[in-house]
Design a protein that fits this description.
Layout (H helix, E strand, L loop, with lengths): L6 E2 H5 L14 H11 L2 H4 L2 H13 L15 E2 L6 H15 L3 E6 L3 H14 L8 E3 L22 E6 L3 H12 L3 H5 L3 E6 L17 H9 L9
Parallel strand pairs: 3-5, 3-6, 4-5
Antiparallel strand pairs: 1-2
């Protein structure tokens, strides 16, 4: 397997003070995921690259222990370059660093959403299940009946894989609004937009028009809804 270098575009524009120095002895999610990769001969030669690149990306995220705000960036990679493995490594390290909600936007079809969830369950969360709380299932996208609870578990990270679907995004927004604002303030959130050129962009022809999915994603990024994202 050949792993191309993945470079966060945000780093090319602006840097922030370094807050994440890489995994340590308490980084249970990353260590579990690294053990999974080490068990696969095809991945052993690229683990160091995945480790270095994901550390670089996590440092460009918002410091979960810092002030409220938003950080946004873009990571580019070729087909079969290890993008999904890099996403999993970044999610694992973000959870270890204090992120308490991970939202993965996984395409527009049910089959792609299921495929992505199955892979993250198999490769990432099943390795140390005590760290993770799944808010979606193989058979079910996010819904209010299976959604966010009214409490924020200490030391655990909630994770979901959802379709880029206006109705699903609306349900998620409603669930977040139903949580006390004090809990949302304590819930640093990582949103990973896989295939971000699909549906996420505003595709309307007129300047003042906004496409449905783009509007819903903008709503998720509102600082009053998710103060740390």
């Amino acid at each position: 397997r050949h792993l191309e270098e993945l470079r966060p575009a945000a780093i090319l524009r602006r840097k922030q003070e370094r807050w994440y120095l890489g995994p340590d002895a308490l980084s249970a999610s990353w260590e579990a995921y690294k053990s999974h990769l080490l068990a696969k001969p095809a991945w052993r030669g690229v683990i160091e690259s995945i480790d270095d690149t994901s550390t670089l990306i996590v440092n460009e995220l918002l410091n979960p222990s810092g002030a409220i705000g938003r950080r946004q960036g873009l990571v580019l990679g070729y087909v079969q370059s290890g993008k999904t493995a890099n996403m999993a490594a970044t999610i694992a390290k973000a959870a270890d660093a204090g992120y308490r909600l991970v939202i993965v936007l996984a395409g527009m079809t049910t089959s792609l959403r299921q495929q992505t969830q199955i892979r993250f369950e198999k490769d990432l969360t099943s390795r140390n299940p005590e760290q993770w709380i799944w808010l979606t299932q193989h058979s079910h996208d996010f819904s209010l009946t299976r959604g966010l609870g009214m409490t924020l578990p200490e030391g655990q990270t909630q994770i979901m894989v959802i379709k880029k679907n206006a109705a699903v995004l609306r349900r998620l927004t409603e669930a977040l609004k139903g949580m006390p604002s004090k809990l949302r303030l304590r819930m640093p959130t990582l949103i990973v937009d896989d295939e971000c050129d699909q549906a996420s962009l505003n595709t309307q022809a007129y300047k003042n028009s906004i496409s449905r999915i783009n509007k819903q994603i903008r709503g998720l990024l509102d600082s009053e809804l998710l103060p740390k994202v």
